[in-house]
Every structure is written in structure tokens, then in C-alpha cells.
Amino acid sequence: MPALVIAAHGSHLNPGSHDPAFAHADTIRGAGAFDEVREAFWKEEPSFREVLRTVESEEVYVVPLFVSEGYFTEQVIPRELRLEGWDVADWDSDGTDADHVTLTADDVGKTVHYCGPVGTHESMTDVIVQRAETVTGDPDVGEGFGIAVVGHGTDRNENSAKAIEYHAERVRETGRFDEVQALFMDEEPEVDDVTEYFEAEDVVVVPLFVADGYHTQEDIPEDMGLTDDYREGYDVPAAVDDTRIWYAGAVGTEALLADVLLERAADAGADVGNALDLVRQRTRGTAAAGD
Predict the structure, then answer these.
(1) Per the UniProt record, which residue ranges are transmembrane (predicted)?
(2) What does the alpha-carbon distance between residue 284 and residue 161 come to, in Å, rounded to a whole number?
(3) pLDDT, tens only, 187-242
(4) Contacts 24+ apart (CB under 8 A), 15-18
(5) Residues 80, 98: Cα–Cα separation, whole Å
(6) How far is CA 125 from each of CA 5, 20, 166, 278, rounded to the nearest angstrom?
(7) Looking at per-residue confidence, does 289 or 53 come out higher?
(8) Is the dihedral of CA 217, 122, 85, 59 positive or negative?
(9) What is the mean pLDDT of residues 252-275?
(10) CA distance 253 to 240
(11) CA-to-CA distance for 87 and 186, rounded, in angstroms?
């Protein structure tokens, strides 16, 4: 049976950065879709460079636990895995629709199905909505609510903003929420001014980040005015300019993200059996990963 590798960034500074990768890997292991499920990291061990040597299977599905198509998914991971013949053009993507490419890891001779990142998969929209349900405690949340999908934004990678706008538009198309807005930390429209973009009295803010860290735990809460000092904490919901802000924290911590990882592998040809159904049953309405 093929193996699954979940490729995440990790961090030397934030010990909780790896929590989503380990939590989602455990969920997928429990569903029995793969004999082997491995986590690999850029900033932690096991590393991208060494992970294929820890896998017995000759066929491996690699799914990047990243938000957007860019430097890490297009350059770092393929390079570190030594994927022979890799060319980002093979994804034939406009920045939000990378699928998969089958290549050989030349140093270990394994067949690798290299998938697009979870952050641009269409099912990530469901995870964003699930995150809103989790933070409000309301499985029917939507009417009377606005929702903001928040990303970093950067001039260095236009795809960073594309992923945020893509999912904001998909949420908008469902018609579930009264208002939907894509907001950013480092470009317009900025999350600092979140209340200016909504008329609704209740707004759910969902950061499209994989893990809770400096940006999601410190920058965004302070920028939105939830607190003057993140170390003092804040209420959920918190009142800002007569608007109740329901701050959800990083979308990657939502348990349902394990479903997206499995879907990426299934899209690339993995026979996951009934694992998708099992994962959905276990993660719908459950606590966020790492909680």
C-alpha cells in the first residue's frame, strides 16, 4: 500500500507550529487509508530531505500542508525531495488550481505523486465554514453574520492573495453569510480595518494560516483591536466599534482539514477506500486540532 507524507513548514521558534501536521496525520492513520503516514518539515525533523528514506513503500503521495502555491511548494519541497524532472509548469495552474504530478525521487528510486497544497483545494472552503461553526458553536451560523477570510498578503508572491480571494468568493457563492470579505495583513484591504468592511453586527474572522503562531495569536488580534496586548487575552466574541468579532484562529487547526489532505491524495489517484467518510464523521463539529 502507498505511503502518505504530509509536508509542513514547522518552526524553531513556535513549538506549536507542528501541532496541526501531527494531529491531522493521526486522524488519517486512524482511518486506515495508508499503511504509512509520515510528517515532514522544513524547520524541524524529520526533514523534507530525509523523509522518503523513512518510508518503506515504493509509492508515496506527498501533500504540502501549505496555504498557497509559491516558493515552498514550487521550489523547496520538490528540490528537497529530489523530484527528477520537476517543472512547476506541469501543474498547469493559475495560482489556485494545482493538481498533482507523478515523478521519481532519484536518490531513493521511489514513485512520488506530488500534490498541490491543501490551501488551494476547493474543499478548504468547507473547512473555513466549519471554522466559523466551531468558534460560534452554531452549526447553522450564517444569517445575520459576515465572514472575513484573512491572509498574509505579500508583493513577493501574488498567489498568496489569490488563495484568500478564491475561498472568499467560494464562500460568497454559497449565499450562507450576509457578507463575505477577503482581508490581508500586508496589503489592502487590511484586517486592521475589519469593521469598516461590514454592516453586520456579528463578523467571524478566519485566518487562512496553517498553524497558530505570531501572526494569528499576536498580530491579528492586536491589529483588529481585540486587545492592546495579546498576553492579556481577549473575549470571543469581542466588541470592536459596535461589532462583535468572533475570531476563529488559524484554519489549519480545524480538525476537518484532515479531509482535505486525504482528498488531495485521492485526487492524485490514491485508493483511500472509505477513509474519507470516516474522517468526515470524526471531524465534523469536533474540536480544533491541537486543542
Answers:
(1) none
(2) 27
(3) 899 999 999 999 999 999 999 999 988 889 999 999 999 999 988 999 999 999 99
(4) 16/211, 16/212, 16/213, 16/290, 17/43, 17/44, 17/211, 17/213, 18/44, 18/211
(5) 19
(6) 23, 18, 9, 20
(7) 53
(8) positive
(9) 96
(10) 25
(11) 29
End-to-end CA distance of the chain: 31
Q: What fold is seen in the domain 3-120+254-283? A: Rossmann fold (3.40.50)
DSSP strands (E only) in the chain: 3-8, 36-41, 59-64, 83-84, 100-105, 110-115, 145-151, 179-184, 202-207, 238-240, 243-247
Residue 281 identity (one-letter amino acid): Q
> Of 62, 84, 78, 86, whose CA–CA distance to 7 is shortest?
62
Write down the domain spans for the chain: 3-120+254-283, 124-252
Residue type for position 272: V
pLDDT of residue 291: 56
Chain position carrying cell 477506500: 273
- The 10s digit of each residue's pLDDT in 122-134 is 999 999 999 999 9
CA dist 32 and 196 (Å) reads: 47
Among 71, 264, 66, which residue's Cα sits nearest to residue 158? Answer: 71
Task: Output DSSP code: residue 237.
Answer: S
Which cell numbers in the block locate residue 216?
494569528
CATH 3.40.50.300: does it fit domain 124-252? no
Match 496589503 to its residue by C-alpha cell: 187
Contact assessment for residue 11 and residue 43, using Cβ atoms and an 8 Å cutoff: yes
